[in-house]
Design a protein that fits this description.
Layout (H helix, E strand, L loop, with lengths): L3 H25 L7 E2 L1 H8 L3 H13 L3 E4 L3 E4 L4 H25 L6 H20 L2 H17 L4 H23 L12 H10 L2 H28 L3
Antiparallel strand pairs: 1-3, 2-3
Amino acid sequence: MPGTGSSAVTRNTLRQQIAEALRDEVLAGRLPAGRHVTVKELAEQYGVSATPVREALVDLSAQGLIDMEHHRGFQVHRFTVEDYRGMVEARTLIVEGIFRRADARGMRVPAPEVLTSVRRRADEAQRASRAGDLDILIGYDLRFWRELGSLVGNPYISDLLDRVRVQSWAFVVPYLRRERDLRGRLWCGHSDLVDAVDRRDAEDAQRLIRSYNEHSLAMVEELTARVGSGEA
């Protein structure tokens, strides 16, 4: 059938675009945890048919960001502090496992153009971290870890790491948004981590990862405790 293939590609592209737009809304806190959404509502918002919206929501459900409710539509998933601790443990095991393997086998330096791209993401993420600019940081941070994860050459590992990182941001963003000033409070070791990779120093890379995860857990414990006590 003429045009069938082109139509399928267009629909899949639209599905991906809507999924990415909705994911960004969740990460920005504009679609808060517990918010109910319907296919009709979103189709009208984006000016598209129901099919790509429904497919995009199913994709986000598979990523753990959206819950499908029987006969009620969809709801933005509620993550808990315990969920976050599990996420940090998971990403610790994934990333430290990568560097332990690299240390045992001899750490390979990526191609110069690949390392340049990762370093660019790292520098931008680090600048945003120091400035406390959450909106800019999230995008660059996700791209940085996605590209760093891709250096392993195993798409299953990089996809899993990306999923956990997206979920981590989805949980912590509402708490960070309550803070008046984030300057100097966010982890900003992205460029140092790239330097360790460039030097083939797996031990230092693992140290930086541990530092990052300890920082993340400490900050979340502090923020959630303050919200629970009514301080924020």
